[in-house]
Amino acid sequence: MTSNERLKRFLMESQLLKLARITPEGFPHVTPVWFDVEGKDFLISTTKERKKARNLAKNNKAGFSIAPRDLPYKAVVGYGTVEMVPDPNGVLIKKFCHKYLPPDKTDKYYASIMSEGDSRIIIKLTPTWVTS
Fold first, then answer.
1. In this predicted model, what pLDDT tens digit does every residue of 84-109 receive, in sequence order?
2. Domain annotation covers residue 49
3. Three-state secondary structure along the chain?
4. What predicted TM-score, i.e. pTM, was given to this entire model?
5. Which candidate, 6, 48, 123, 125, has a CA 20 to 30 Å from the CA of 32?
């Protein structure tokens, strides 16, 4: 197995990406989030109203860490820039519900999230530096 294949497998098996960004006061703010990989980009679902989205709207630089629970010294870390894309129908969060939740909880959780009425967006994190 090549190193690229190992990396893809690791990312597919990982459940949380820790997203780091800077608050307007200059402090780091880290949030664990569900994620997907599209090419070299990480995709994260949130709403425009959340603190992470508000912070990233002011400063589009972010750091990240992905590590399994059982082997903390096996990780992918890096930083890059983000772009926020509208996701009014919650396509990405629906995908996450199917990926991360048991089948009997998927539809109920998705309906609950979408009933909040917030403006869903996709945070597209494009790494400029990565190490593993």
1. 999 999 999 999 999 989 999 999 99
2. yes
3. CCHHHHHHHHHHHCCCEEEEEECCCCCEEEEEECCEEECCEEEEEEECCCHHHHHHHHCCEEEEEECCCCCCCCCEEEEEEEEEEECCCCHHHHHHHHHHCCHHHHHHHHHHHHHCCCCEEEEEEEEEEEEC
4. 0.90
5. 6
